[in-house]
Amino acid sequence: MEYEQILYEVKDRILTITLNRPDRLNAFNGKMRGELIDAFKQSNADDNVRAIIVTGAGRAFCAGADLGAGAETFNYDEREDRLDRETRRDGGGRLTLQIFESVKPVIAAINGPAVGVGITMTLAMDIRIAAYNSRFGFVFSRRGVIPEACSTWFLPRIVGISQALEWVFSGRVFSAQEALQRGLVRSLHTPGDLLPSAEIIAREIADNASAISVALSRQLMWRMLGTDHPMEAHKIESRGIYSTGKSDDAREGVTSFLEKRKPEFKNKPSTDMPEFFPWWSERFFE
Question: Domain of 104: which CATH number?
């Protein structure tokens, strides 16, 4: 698939996806959604991608939904996209569900304003860092709609239910400093330091960690958020430890540690995931 509204660049095992509509502050539309979904599917299948960074071109990360359709922007019956009209599925949710399925760690490098879907799309990502001048807003109540992109599942798990409700009820736009204080983002950076800082995080993973271990750990962490007892984690972790413990990566991890050298992990998510993966049943939209 050729991309028109995003950039897709793999360098030294780190994929950088850039939202690329700077003239529209990277406003989200159906085409961008489709390209992002395809990009995350492509990255899942590419063993040369060990970590993903998502950022925006120009002065914004993403200004939210493109309001070019005016008052009918959120009216599915008026959408040009046939799939949207027929399924009545939220496009932001389709994207975050695809990110949720990723076996690669995802870092959001939020370089400017991120409101509406511009911030909710990042909630399915694993680490968020931001520029000092970034601003955030879950502005749905001020547009007469509700939160989307599965954010009612993600946001309370990240910042707690009380803070999530305050931001969603008011719809106010808030500062990067508040986002940091409330745990929405990991750290703040100058604009020039933002991407290099994201790359440092990605490089630490890409250069030192087993791709299989990272893939399984990512899915374990996210999916265990919804279980009702630690026994559910124990069941899957036991299968995972048994499987990975006899793998070439486990042997290399121990040997490299004893030999005081950097590990050279060879196992690949595309071919070497344990036989029990995935351990969950696919969920369908009804």
Answer: 3.90.226.10
| Strand 135-137 versus strand 114-115 pairing type | parallel
In this structure, is residue 1 part of a structural domain? Answer: no
Region 4-26: mean pLDDT is 97
Same domain, 103 and 232: no
Q: What are the tens digits of pLDDT across the range 61-94?
A: 999 988 776 766 666 766 666 666 677 889 999 9
Which DSSP string do the residues of 94-130 spell out, in sequence order?
Answer: HHHHHHHT-SS-EEEEE-S-EETHHHHGGGGSSEEEE
Total number of domains in the chain: 2
Side-by-side strand order, sheet with 173-175: 114-115, 135-137, 173-175
Residues 233 and 156 in one domain: no
Element (H, E) at 137: strand 135-137
Burial 65-78 (b: 16+ CB within 10 A, else e): bbeeeeeeebeeee
Give the SS3 label for residue 52.
strand
Pair (181, 65) in one structural domain: yes
First to last CA, the chain: 28
What is the extent of the structural domain holding 34? 6-205
In our burial notation (b when 16+ CB lie closer than 10 A, e otherwise), range 240-258 reads: beebbeebebbebbeeeee
pTM for this model (two decimals): 0.94
